[in-house]
Amino acid sequence: MQTYVKEYTDFMTNVRHKALNTVESYKRDVTQYITYLNNSGVKDLSATTKTTVLSYLLALQKEGRASSTVSRTLASLRSFYVFMIENGMVKTDPTSNLEAPHVEKKPPQILSSAEVELLMEQPKCVDNKGIRDKAMLELLYATGIRVSELINLTVSDVNLQMSFICCRSEKKERVIPMGNKAREALEEYIDKARPMMIKDEDEKALFVNCSGAHISRQGFWKIIKYYQHKAGIQTEITPHTLRHSFAAHLLENGADLHSIQEMMGHADISSTQVYSKFINNKLKDVYSKAHPRA
Predict the structure, then answer these.
(1) pTM of the entire predicted model
(2) Residues assigned a catalytic role
(3) Tens of pLDDT, residues 138-149
């Protein structure tokens, strides 16, 4: 059955052109399921039933796996069985009509404006690394892009004259404006630091590490955690925290949901509406503290 897993992941990579992280997630979920089947004495995927899949999901829950993990696993197995049916390897889909466990969505972690300012003050533009870090943090907060989009930007994706960046994915591209602080930080990085950091003149990546190569997701994670610690900010900060803060602060200052949706690249407005709940809760808190008869 491991052969099926390889064929499936090759299909997701080369035909469906899914992102590497997504494919790795599918592969991990399906591999763990296959291991469970083998340990349960099931040697043929065509012998699996709804009961088989349900038993596996229940086993994950008993192990203490989060509801979000169980839901993602079911989504991975659905995708896997669709592939198997389309290629004539099985005849029925045991995941059909199965419901994923309800996932209670946690409210997004938002930084205050003061915390954002404190974080942005940390990188000192006295060397190439500091100039680069400043540009990355400013751009992430100014545009609300995902960390994967940030590290995959190329020099040609930036228009300093018009103050915008272009984010491209497998399905679409979007143009996002940036403010003066982000533009100035990016301009300094492109003009002064990046030419000194790259080793290959043909390097297209906008942000590079100290070895001159394309900066990694893990590399940026370390950067943001370093500056959180340096600033003494207690709120847990991840790259996504700045994306959430970007949206919440725009909404708080009068931006409309549809504009924020477009800038963030949300396919569904419901993904953007979560920030409205955050603002509403904040207003209720302000009211309860300030109104004499609250």
Answers:
(1) 0.63
(2) 171, 243, 266, 275
(3) 999 999 998 989
Q: What are phi and psi of 42, to 5 degrees?
A: -95, 110
pLDDT tens for 97-141 read 887 666 556 667 889 999 999 999 999 999 999 999 999 999 999
Q: Which helix (H) or strand (E) holds 167?
A: strand 164-168
Question: Which residue ranges make up each domain of the chain?
Answer: 2-86, 113-289
Pick the CATH number of 2-86 from 3.90.650.10, 3.50.50.60, 3.30.70.3280, 1.10.150.130: 1.10.150.130
- The pLDDT, as a whole number, for residue 294 is 44
Give Cα separations from 52 to 9, 33, 90, 101, 214 (angstroms): 22, 10, 15, 16, 44
- What's 23's DSSP letter? H
Tell me: domain 113-289, CATH 1.10.443.10, correct?
A: yes
